[in-house]
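note to self: dont lose this again. the chain is below, predicted strucutre after it. 164 aa total, dont forget to put it in the shared folder this time
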Amino acid sequence: MTPAYKLDRIDIKILAVLQRNGRITNVELADEVSLSPSPCLMRVKKLQQAGYITGYSAQIDLARLGPTLTVFTEFTLKNHRQIDFARFQEALGNIDNCVECHLVSGGYDYLVKFVTAGIDEYQLIVEGLIDRELGIDKFFSFVVLKTPFSKQHIPLSRLFDEQA
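---
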């Protein structure tokens, strides 16, 4: 299977099940996608080798660990050259508290999600970015007051089944 491999419905089912439960046994996974265990395991390994499965991780309930602050920040850069974007993205990639970074269209360039221990830590991070002279023109911060829900699973079958 190469990265250009066209996924079929069974591959999509496997990916959907694994994103819901990465700890599922191969026998349980095979049963859920209507395959025998050996071909199912072969498909999972091929999906991993082709880069469709990039890793497995635990979902942590941060609230149980202690208080945190989530902030979405809109950044606008002064210049829009490729090198400016690359420098900014590299700087953000080196900040552990930066958990998402999106280059977007519209009134600003980046939408970035930070999770910190509190407002003081967030302020230090942003001040550090400004001090590094990364070409930030302006930024706006949006402190999350409450997260009614956050979905970790993408509806793969709805998005890709018709293409399979």
